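Marked as duplicate of an earlier ticket. Keeping the data here for the record.
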Amino acid sequence: MEINWLHNVVLVLITVITLFVAVLLGWVIWRYNAKRNPTPSRLSHHAGLEVAWTVVPVLILVGMAIPSFRLVLLRRPHLRPRLTSR
């Protein structure tokens, strides 16, 4: 039951991220087209943006890992070893 819940949550999260990236990519293609923007900006770094696109994926992965590890640990007692040693 919890595995289905985790699957559904991860599926929704992946779908939202994919749609967000697709919309953002489309906006960048439209906004920074050579015809619309003939002289490109000289600005190349933005510290806040670089920190954000490093920290946000880490937080997403940690948010996905916590329920995954919990499920693995809950399922562990049900697994019996095939071979035991004395």
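See parent ticket for discussion. The radius of gyration is 22 Å.
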